[in-house]
Amino acid sequence: MKRKWNTLLAGTLALMMVLVGTGYAYWSDTLNVTTKASTGELDVTFVDLGLYAQYDNEDDANNWSIIDGVKGGAAHTDTGYVASNFFTDSDHNTITGKGAIATYTGRAQAFNDISFNAELVNPTEIGKKISGYAAADKGSDSIAITLNQLYPGYAQAFRTDIVNLGSLAARLSNIQFTTATMDNKELTSNLKQMLGVAVYIDKETNGSTTNDTFKLANAVGAANCFTMGGVDFVRLSALENKTVCAALTKAVSDGLLLAKPDGQYRMDMFYAIGMAPDAEGKYTSGTAAKAMTNATASEAKDAKTENKGVTITMNMSWDQFNQGVTPETTNILENQNVAR
Which runs of consecutive H residues, i.e. helices, occur in the chain? Predict the structure, then answer.
């Protein structure tokens, strides 16, 4: 009897354990969405800095790199222009060929003490082949130009390329000029009237010039310019510490869209600094004949423009290509928006 009871008890316990460990069973499955996202970059840079009229394809009888008033050229004509092939060189990011500046200063030393240079600031390899440039070519976000011992009637022209190394198109949206005194030299109002800047930006497409350009003189107006060598220079007085191009017109901004590298777009930028001749003596004593009749003019004194100095900074701002674009469409996902 005892053995049967034990057997019954053991069976009952086993059945209870089975019943306790058994619940409702469910089928289950899983869906998964995996997203990988990386960000691109906006990277516009300067490459190939030099003097204008330095390359063979810029070699023309009427082109100038310097207006200095010194007799020059093969015929020693008194044009005030250096011969167009004087600084010819084919190297990228080089200001003239070896010894060319020394040759020029030697040629001009009887007339002036001009010295000049331009260079990319802390250049690095651009890292990719683009628009005719090799990956090993150097580029920089900054250009430093120095011009010493300027005088009325002098001008110097430079040129560079602007290329897009990034992964999306860039749009030129703003150009701002600032001025500051240089090396504690005084920056007078007369000097601001006599020093001028010329800027011309021209977009290239597959090597051919288009009509997509930015023209500083056009943007500022003729009343703020003086002319030398056929070029309108905008006076510093109209540029200093002002965002003169804060709102480029949509047509100009759209035209100055710089495509991503495989679009083969790049821009030429031409930049010049000049000092107005002022022969009439509005800001200086002018010519000797003029000075004799205007010797007491309080504002037309040479001391107001001699031994002065200025640092001119031009900042070019770039936005991604779709800046300001608002999609005017609808999407079903609007149904998940927070109630407002």
Answer: 2-20, 100-108, 189-194, 216-220, 250-255, 288-293
Name, in order, each residue with C-beta under 8 angstroms of 62's C-beta and a sequence gap of 6 or more: 84
51 forms beta bridges with: 158
d(CA 236, CA 85): 30
As a whole number of angstroms, the distance between CA 237 and CA 184 comes to: 19
16 φ/ψ angles, rounded to the nearest 5 degrees? -65, -40
pLDDT, tens digit (0-9, with 9 covering 90-100), for 152-198: 999 999 999 999 888 888 888 888 888 888 877 888 899 999 999 99
What tokens were used for 255?
């035209």
From the list 278, 244, 205, 229, the residue with the least C-alpha distance to 66 is: 229
The number of beta carbons lying within 10 Å of the beta carbon of residue 84 is 20
The pLDDT tens digits for 15-61 are 555 555 566 778 989 889 888 888 788 899 999 998 888 887 776 76
Structure tokens at 149: 């011992």
Reported as a single tens digit per residue, the pLDDT across 282-305 is 899 888 888 777 666 667 888 999
pLDDT-derived band of residue 91, with 50, 70 and 90 as boundaries? low
pLDDT score, position 104: 84
The residue type of 10 is A
- Global confidence as pTM: 0.84
Residue pair 136/125 in contact (Cβ under 8 Å)? The answer is: yes
For residue 218, give both structure tokens: 């056009």
CB-count burial class (<10 Å; 0-12, 13-18, 19+) for 77: exposed
Domain boundaries, the chain: 44-294+301-320
